[in-house]
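Worked example 2:
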Amino acid sequence: MPQTLKRRNISCIYIFDTFPSDDRRKPTCIEDCRPSVRRQWMMNRTKEYLRNVISELAASFKELADYCHKEGAIKDEWRDEFIQMADRWIEKARWNWAEHELADQIDIICGKITLLADSAGVIRQRTNDDDSITVVDDAPHENKQP
C-alpha cells in the first residue's frame, strides 16, 4: 500500500522532501518523507546516530499512543501494547546491528507512526506558542482500534 504523502509533523525530526504538490523541498518529518528520501538521508549515518533516531521515534510513538488513548481513539490494552512495542524498539537498537538493519528498523517505526496518526486523524499543529499534538477536524476515530 503506498504511503499517503502528507505532513503530520509527529516526530519533529526534520529532513527535506518534495511532495508532488510542492514547488521546492520543504522540511518534512522523517516519518512523513518518502521511503527513498528517508533511506538516502540515513546513508552514511553512524550506528549511534541511527540509534538516537530510533529512541526519538519511539518517544514520539509513545506520546502519540498516550494522546490517542486520552482522546478515546485507542483502548487501554492497545495503548499498553504500543508503549511496550516502543520500549522493544529502544532495546533492539542497542543490539549490535549493522547500519542498514537500524535503517530498516527506522522505516518500520515510521510506518507505525503514520499508521497510528492516520487512523486517529492526528497531526502536530505548529504555532509560536504551542507544539502540541491535536486531532484534525476530519478525524475518523470514534473509539476505533488501529
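The chain is about 50% helix and 10% strand. Residues 127-146 have pLDDT under 50 and may be disordered.
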